[in-house]
Amino acid sequence: MLGGVPVARDVVALVAPVAEELAARLGLEVVDVEYRREGGGWVLRVFIDKPGGVTLDDCQALSEELSDRLDDLDPIPTSYSLEVSSPGIERPLKRPADFERFAGRRVHVRTFAPLEGRRNFQGRLVGLVEGDVVLETDAGQVAIPHDLVAKAHLVAEF
Predict the structure, then answer these.
(1) pLDDT over 90 (residue 45)
(2) Nearby residues of 128 by Cβ (< 8 Å), 6 or more positions away
(3) Residue 102 and residue 113: Cα distance in Å, rounded?
(4) What domains does the chain contain, in order, with CATH numbers?
(5) Fewer beta carbons within 10 Å, N or C terminal of the chain?
């Protein structure tokens, strides 16, 4: 905590396991959890997914369960708004399993440090091979160590 306000990463570390447990019971996967200041207030955002995509009913069910659990646990000492939603068309890829599940899709990857003189890569995801995120780019195949990936997300194809 900083001056009575919880640090975002601490809130995420406390809330994510609770959200993941409840989501799993509902047949859902937690893609990401964010806690940030927006418009003068705090927002706790939980992004969920499942094969075939999530519905409004899925979001509502997890929101109700998570809200009740967070009211009981009271891990956040300040007031906040809870939002549960789909990760959207450009879903982030975080876990190693994400890079397997979405093989064949177009992705954008940003690295923590330059690799082959670049930090941004876009191409078709081959998958995760021996700990490397492998992409087929216009310049050929590139292997990015998973621990070097700062951010990755699907790219919408129309």
Answers:
(1) yes
(2) 96, 99, 100, 134, 146
(3) 24
(4) 8-85 (3.30.300.70), 96-154 (2.30.30.180)
(5) C
